[in-house]
Design goal:
Helix content: 25-40%
Order of helices and strands: HHEEEHEEEEEHHEHH
Organism: Vermiconidia calcicola
Largest sheet: 6 strands, antiparallel
Protein name: Glycine cleavage system H-protein subunit
Strand content: 15-25%
CATH class of the largest domain: Mainly Beta
Distance between the termini: 60 Å
Length: about 180
Amino acid sequence: MSTAVAGRVLGRSVASTPFARCSRTQYLRLRAQNQAFRTTIRSFSASSRVWQKKYTQDHEWVELSDDGATGTIGISTYAAKALGDVVFVELPTVDLEVNQGDSIGAVESVKSASDIMTPVSGTITEANNVLEEKPATINKSPEGEGWLAKIAVSDPSEVEKLMDGEGYRKFTEEADEH
């Protein structure tokens, strides 16, 4: 390939990127910020158990910590989409002792309101106070930054009775069909 042709091909591919008209310093800064160029560091660890989110039929989830003593509670992405734009979140109080299935708060949206049921028994140790100021965080990241509460789990065996991600996906697909 001639230099002129190679230059045009390279020119087109570079021109279509955000790096088209910047200095080398700017390019390196943008490249460092861009996820596509970051190298992935993978760490491997061996554990007797892989913890994953477990779901209830009421569309709440719980994810246990590595030690299995504490869990994080929230609503599923499916529930967040069904609710629509969340405008208010009632959070549980810290040190509240709850049994599996007890109401620990509520989520109100422009469409409806829904109670939040705890998927496991235990004592609430923390509430996500960010949701009081920014309830829409639940819409943006219901299974991430939109978590509702942390709980000291009193009976870890309750988690085993909940649905895993694949079971929950099938459950919601069946619900959508009806």
